[in-house]
Amino acid sequence: MNSKETQKKTKLSAENVNFYYGEKQVIKDVSLSFKENEITALIGPSGCGKSTFLRSLNRMNDLIESSRIDGFITLEGEDINSKECDVVELRRRVGMVFQKPTPFAKSIFENVVYGVRLNGIKDKEELMNIAEESLKKAALWNEVKDRLHQSALSLSGGQQQRLCIARALAVSPEVLLMDEPASALDPIATEKLEEGIKELKNDVCIVIVTHNMQQAERISDKTAFFYMGELIEWGDTKKIFHSPDCMKTAQYVSGSFG
Ligand SMILES: Nc1ncnc2c1ncn2[C@@H]1O[C@H](COP(=O)(O)OP(=O)(O)OP(=O)(O)O)[C@@H](O)[C@H]1O
C-alpha cells in the first residue's frame, strides 16, 4: 500500500454482518470497508447477496418485513443501525442510484433539486448553482443546459441515469451506492456513464454492484467477490483480476461460472 492510500480515511465499514430474509441467511459474516476517494466494485454470481449487502449500507432493507441484520455497519465510526441514527440523514449522506433510471415526471431542473428543496433550500440562485454543479459532476450539463425546464422523461435512458446521479449528488452525499447502474444502457451510454463515475470519486466514495467484469476492472480501485452470501476475497482490483488468492475468485473473474 502506498502512503497516499494509507492516508485515505475509511468512510463506511461493515463488521461481521449477517443478513436474513425470514429464516434464510443471505449474507454471512461479511467484513469489508470503503475508503474516501475510492470506487469499490461488488461482484459475484446472481443471488450471492451483492444487492442485499449494498442496500444494507444505507438501510434500504428496513422496508422489507421479516428481514434482519446483525453485526455492525458504521459511517465514520457511527453505527448506522443504532436507534439514535436518523435514517433520513443517513440516506442523504449515503445516496443510492438504482438499476433502472428513476426520474420523476418533472423538469430536469426540478429532478436535480428535489432533495435540496426537501432540505428547505428555496433561494432560486442557490438552487440553480447546485443544479449546475451537480449536472456537471454527473457529466450531463452540456447536454441539458439549454433545456433544464423540459421534462426529464424526454431524456434518453443514459441521460436519465446520469440525471439520477446528479439528483443523488445534489444533496452532497459522502458515499454513493450504485446497483448495476449501466445494466439498462447501450455501450455508448455505458461508456459515458463510466467516465462520469470515475470523475466522481474525487468527491464521493463509491460502491457499485456490477455483473460486467470489464466494467469492474475499468472503473474500480477495489473489488470484492461474493459467493453464496460470503465475501470470498477483496482487495486491489488488479490483484483480484490478475492474481487472486482464491481459486473460486480466479474461476469467476475468468468467466468459468456465474
Ligand atoms: N425481498 C426479498 N425477500 C426474500 N428473499 C430475497 C429478497 N431479496 C433477495 N432475496 C434473496 O436473497 C438472495 C440474495 O439476493 P440479492 O438480490 O442480494 O443477490 P444479488 O447477488 O444482488 O443477485 P443479482 O445479481 O441477481 O441481482 C437471493 O437468494 C434472493 O432470492
TrEMBL record:
Keyword check for Cell membrane, yes or no: yes
Q: Which GO biological process annotations does it have?
A: phosphate ion transmembrane transport
Read off the InterPro entries from this record.
AAA+_ATPase, ABC_transporter-like_ATP-bd, ABC_transporter-like_CS, P-loop_NTPase, PstB-like
User: Per the record's keyword annotation, is Isomerase included, yes or no?
Assistant: no
Q: Highest taxon of the source?
A: Bacteria
Record-annotated ABC transporter domain positions = 12-253
A Pfam short name: ABC_tran
Instruction: From the UniProt record, list the coiled-coil ranges.
Output: none
Any one GO MF term held by the record is:
phosphate transmembrane transporter activity
Enumerate the UniProt keywords alphabetically. Answer: ATP-binding, Cell membrane, Membrane, Nucleotide-binding, Phosphate transport, Transport
Q: Which SMART domains match?
A: AAA
PANTHER family found in the cross-reference section: ABC TRANSPORTER I FAMILY MEMBER 17
Protein name listed in UniProt: Phosphate ABC transporter ATP-binding protein
Q: Which organism is it from?
A: Turicimonas muris
